[in-house]
Design a protein that fits this description.
This protein is mainly alpha-helical. The chain is built from ten helices and no strands. Pfam families: TPR_6 (PF13174).
Length: 217
């Protein structure tokens, strides 16, 4: 898995996994509800084909997501240009990538994120959508294709300059590139955003303080 998850300093690495967690919890956790009414009401894991029982919440969740992946493969074969199918399939791959990261299965995580990126690109060919572009940027970022990720975020911010999520993701991206000045400016945009709640503002301010220390070292 040459070149994947290149060695980073501890602070940048933590920022990356915070980002992955934010995307997974904030966007992917609601993916099944998103399909209701879009022709995928039958989309659920088939417990009868789960095979050998496994221990642990993570292992069970991987089994569930793998079952969803198989169902999406079938749906996509019949509806290759369906936006709901493409988006749902991409989100399942993102979730699998996150779960495989937690299990230290880097090869499988990489493959899942790569499939997600391809599916997001196809979805965006059907309809330009800022939310899907944000998710595509996160897939690029975790694959460490920083230029592609930054390009997608810039497209979002050109259309919606106050997009809080794009600014937060841009800040994390610039941290991982060790562009401390750029990251500070991005976190300042987060902390001053009227869309940010108090916890988000405090999180951004704490990152600014850490980055100021990082610059002086």
């Amino acid at each position: 898995m040459a070149g994947f998850f290149r060695k980073q300093n501890a602070f940048a690495r933590v920022a990356l996994y915070v980002l992955v967690g934010m995307i997974a919890l904030g966007l992917l956790g609601t993916s099944l509800a998103w399909y209701v009414g879009s022709g995928a009401e039958q989309l659920k894991p088939d417990s009868s084909s789960s095979g050998e029982e496994t221990n642990g919440i993570n292992a069970t969740e991987i089994e569930n997501q793998e079952a969803l992946r198989k169902q999406f493969e079938g749906l996509l074969a019949g509806k290759p240009d369906d936006l709901a199918v493409l988006t749902g399939y991409a989100r399942v791959e993102m979730k699998l990538g996150e779960l495989y990261l937690q299990e230290n299965k880097g090869d499988q995580a990489q493959e899942a994120f790569q499939r997600a990126a391809e599916l997001y690109r196809k979805a965006l060919e059907q309809q330009d959508d800022l939310q899907l572009r944000l998710e595509l940027a996160s897939a690029y970022q975790v694959l460490q294709d920083d230029d592609q990720a930054q390009g997608e975020l810039q497209k979002i911010l050109q259309e919606e300059p106050d997009n809080l999520y794009a600014w937060a993701q841009m800040a994390s991206l610039l941290e991982n590139k060790e562009d401390w000045d750029g990251a500070i400016k991005a976190w300042e945009s987060v902390s001053s955003s009227p869309q940010a709640d108090q916890m988000t503002k405090e999180f951004a301010k704490s990152h600014i303080e850490e980055l100021e220390k990082q610059k002086s070292e």
